[in-house]
């Protein structure tokens, strides 16, 4: 089993059996647990009782059923680690739950999370099954772990543990945020003391938190794979041509889908002197200000100077339109008039490579 979930907190029992220190237990003696409460001061009859301040009085009405001394589990609670991009936790929540915000515009967020969850359990050689028709509740098959003692050929299983999880998805109405919650739903343990279906509360929390952190790490890994794919796509896209949009206006035809081009166009603006002032995501329009970049002598020496588009400084609009798997990019001036074909031809040596992103990576 690859990266078994039991390598985290539940294996502390096995680790402790191999060493001299129990990491669940405080270091030192526990004589305080055997101390008896001192009797109240007896005042002889006829004498005035001394003043007793109640400010620092400790009540005897406390929970005495909990662990004492060596039985106290001193491990710090596990925490959700939101290491993936745009992940966050709810303040004050003790649940194994994390929120994901939309990162990749061309991916459905819930489907992306479920795919990452599937990938994680596949790496662990554990099956995942959907419980509800809406695809919001999933449950894992059993994670198994065994601890052996002795040497070959006299090895024997001294302890075995099995555990199952439930994964619940919820999302915001706008669809750009989704939460994943992990719950431990079944537990079995067999050792020299017999069998048990009860797990320590702290062990349960640690198991849930660590399972969630594994999924978060998998989401982060899948983000990186997708970003690498996008970079390769942008690096290999070299075909930008002149054409016409649906209104017969001169335009650039780019062999990149409109959604992907939309999400990456700010990279082009940043490097070519265009400053985004506003945008209309529904109509796929960027409103920009253009100021011709000035290359310094040092830029020329170090090779950092970029080609400059021969356009007057001012306000422009870049409007995208989907053409199947391709896109059209029409540039409008401040009067909302599409730039003529002659202008597009004049700046093609700058705009063409920029829109293909072949020089970005």
Which sheet architecture does the biggest sheet show? 8 strands, antiparallel
Radius of gyration from the alpha-carbon trace, in angstroms:
32 Å
Q: Gap between N and C termini, in Å? A: 37 Å
CATH architecture of the largest domain, by name, is: 2-Layer Sandwich
Rounded mean pLDDT is 83
| Topology, number of strands | 14
Low-confidence runs (pLDDT<50, min 5 residues)? 1-20
Which CATH top level class of the largest domain fits?
Alpha Beta
Number of domains: 2
Query: H/E element string?
Result: HEEHEEEEEEHEEHEEHEEHH
Structural class label: alpha+beta
Shape: elongated
Description:
The structure is a single chain. This protein is an alpha+beta fold and 361 residues long. The protein folds into 2 domains: 181 residues, Alpha-D-Glucose-1,6-Bisphosphate, Chain A, domain 4; 117 residues, TATA-Binding Protein (2-Layer Sandwich). 26% of the residues lie in helices and 26% in strands. The strands form 2 sheets. Strands 1, 2, 3, 4, 5, 6, 7 and 8 form an 8-stranded antiparallel beta sheet that branches. Helix 2 crosses helix 3. The longest helix is centred in the middle third of the chain and has 36 residues.
In short:
The protein is of the alpha+beta class and about 350 residues long.
Q: Mind sketching the topology for me?
A:
Elements: H1 12-18, E1 87-88, E2 97-101, H2 109-123, E3 128-130, E4 137-140, E5 143-149, E6 156-171, E7 177-191, E8 194-196, H3 201-236, E9 240-244, E10 250-254, H4 258-271, E11 274-280, E12 285-290, H5 297-302, E13 314-323, E14 326-332, H6 341-346, H7 348-356
Antiparallel strand pairs: 1-2, 2-7, 3-4, 4-6, 5-6, 6-7, 7-8, 9-10, 10-14, 11-12, 12-13, 13-14
Helix pairs in contact: 2-3
């Amino acid at each position: 089993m690859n990266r078994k979930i039991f390598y985290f907190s539940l294996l502390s029992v096995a680790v402790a059996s191999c060493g001299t220190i129990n990491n669940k237990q405080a270091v030192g003696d526990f004589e305080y647990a055997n101390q008896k409460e001192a009797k109240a001061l007896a005042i002889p009859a006829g004498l005035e009782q001394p003043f007793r301040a109640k400010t620092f009085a400790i009540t005897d009405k406390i929970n005495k059923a909990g662990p004492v001394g060596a039985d106290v589990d001193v491990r710090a609670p596990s925490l959700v680690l939101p290491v993936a991009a745009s992940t966050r936790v709810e303040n004050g929540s003790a649940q194994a739950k994390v929120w994901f915000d939309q990162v990749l515009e061309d991916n459905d967020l819930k489907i992306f999370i479920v795919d990452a969850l599937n990938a994680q359990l596949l790496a662990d050689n554990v099956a995942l099954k959907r419980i509800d028709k809406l695809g919001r509740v999933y449950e894992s098959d059993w994670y198994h772990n065994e601890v052996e003692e002795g040497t070959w050929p006299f090895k024997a299983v001294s302890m075995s543990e099995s555990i199952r999880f439930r994964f619940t998805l919820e999302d915001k109405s706008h669809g750009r945020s989704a939460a994943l919650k992990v719950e431990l739903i079944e537990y079995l343990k067999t050792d020299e003391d017999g069998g048990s279906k009860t797990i320590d509360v702290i062990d349960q929390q640690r198991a849930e938190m660590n399972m969630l952190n594994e999924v978060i790490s998998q989401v982060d890994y899948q983000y990186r794979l997708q970003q690498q794919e996008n970079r390769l796509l942008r690096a290999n896209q070299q075909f930008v041509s002149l054409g016409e949009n649906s209104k017969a206006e001169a335009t650039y035809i780019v062999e990149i889908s409109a959604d992907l081009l939309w999400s990456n166009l700010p990279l082009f603006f940043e490097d070519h002197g265009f400053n985004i002032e506003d945008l209309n995501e529904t109509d796929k329009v960027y409103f920009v200000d253009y100021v011709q970049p000035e290359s310094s002598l040092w830029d020329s020496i170090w090779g950092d100077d970029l080609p400059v588009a021969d356009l007057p400084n001012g306000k422009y609009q870049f409007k995208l339109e989907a053409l199947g798997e391709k896109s059209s990019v029409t540039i409008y001036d401040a009067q909302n008039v599409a730039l003529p074909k002659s202008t597009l031809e004049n700046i093609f040596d700058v705009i063409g490579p920029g829109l293909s992103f072949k020089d970005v990576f």
